[in-house]
Amino acid sequence: MERRAYFIAGDLLANLSTGAVAGAASALLVGPGWPMWLAMPAGMLLGMLLASVLGVAVFFRYFGAMEVMLPTALTGMLAGMLAAMWATMAPLGLAPAALLGVLCGYAALGLVYALDWHLKRSAPEQGT
Amino acid sequence: MSDIATRRKWDRAARSFDLMTGIGPDKRWEPAKRALFGRMGQGEILFLAIGTGLDIPFFPPGRRILGIDISPKMIAAAAPRVAAYRGELRAQVMDVHDLDLPDRSIDQVFTSCTFCSVPRPVEGLRQLYRVLKPGGELHMFEHTGSRLFPFGLMLHAMTPISRRVGPDMNRVTTANVVRAGFQLDRVQPVFLDVVKTISAHRPQD
Ligand SMILES: C[S@@+](CC[C@H](N)C(=O)[O-])C[C@H]1O[C@@H](n2cnc3c(N)ncnc32)[C@H](O)[C@@H]1O
Q: Which of A92-96, A120-124, B2-6, B165-169 is least confident?
């Protein structure tokens, strides 16, 4: 698990801002008239796309490749999907959508850190 | 993809390679790479895919190393780092599928983010096997696909795009090493089951 302050701060910055952007963009795209079956994948795709764009443009070069790409893709996917689902049911403003995205960023990063820690502890020898 | 196409792709990538990987990925992976390259011994060493030479500062001094890469532009960009190495380091354009080296002439092979990029990985690994002496070591720092959900799926989905400008994201490099005839010694995770070091050797006859 990463212990260097620079990279932990970078991971937080990348995931929280990706989440905020993905959540807000998804809320902008999707409105109360959308069917859930369409809103969910549309939000996920938009979130992942935005995560890749932000990663290539800003975050990968400063904070790492896979270590940034995978959690931010997960963050974007989650934030986009949840904001889109919410927006189909009730109007969702940009600020609450961004906040939802920030929470997704925390959750996704926490999950990845925990998984990484667990894998190194329990299965130091890997497959593929 | 033909090898000319591979060379062109990496020649193009050479322009922005240090900008994209010289700070974040390079520093992030530095401890794991230093530990791996710290295994360089006193014999003949082949370093596959020297790139722009970002790995060279992590090499222990005083070794005898031939660094190769398919891309002349990468090799040209690596020149200052090659010159700064305190030891014997030569850099040469060479394709791993067609190694211009005698059989059983190398003691150790090192690679770094290479087999995500080599078009025919098992064939490339068989060439490494050929040039290694029996008992010779292969040490790799690589990123691969993942068995974890949803990361494995994501890496598969990204590969058709990433391979146009750079590496594949979904390689099964550990399995490829075994397929090429090597005996696996150790696979150590660096990040999830995606970034890892792989150590193997060519069995004695
Ligand atoms: C992702 S870069 C890694 C460069 C360097 N090892 C590093 O980590 O900074 C992949 C490298 O593999 C080289 N490469 C791709 N196919 C190759 C082949 N068939 N033979 C030799 N080198 C190859 C590319 O030119 C490129 O420099």
A: A120-124
What whole-number distance in Å separates Cα of residue B93 and Cα of residue B74? 9
pLDDT for residue A123: 67
β-strand pairing of B195-201 with B183-191 = antiparallel
Structural domain boundaries, residue B102: 4-201
Residue B65 belongs to a domain with what CATH number?
Answer: 3.40.50.150
Q: Which residues line ligand 1 (CB under 6 A)?
A: B 6, 10, 49, 51, 54-55, 69-71, 74, 95-97, 112-114, 117-118, 167
Residues near B138 by Cβ (< 8 Å), separated by ≥ 6? Answer: B108, B109, B111, B125, B128, B132, B177, B182, B198, B199, B200, B201, B202
Q: Is the CB of residue B130 less than 8 Å from the CB of residue B182?
A: no
Residues of A with CB under 8 A from a CB of B: 2, 6-7, 10, 48, 52, 59-68, 70, 73-74, 77, 112, 115-116, 119-120, 123-128
Q: Mind listing the pLDDT tens digit for each residue in B120-179?
A: 999 999 999 999 999 999 999 999 999 999 999 999 999 999 999 999 999 999 999 999
Alpha carbon distance A43, B134 (integer Å): 54
Beta bridge partners of B111: B48, B140
H helices of chain A, in order, are 5-29, 36-54, 60-63, 66-89, 94-122
Is this structure's pTM higher than 0.90? yes
For Cα atoms B67, B71, B75, give the angle at the middle one, nearest 5 degrees.
50
Count of domains for chain B: 1
Number of H helices, E strands in chain B: 6, 7
Question: What stretch of H or E contains B142?
Answer: strand B132-143
Q: Provide the 10 A C-beta neighbour count for residue B180.
A: 20
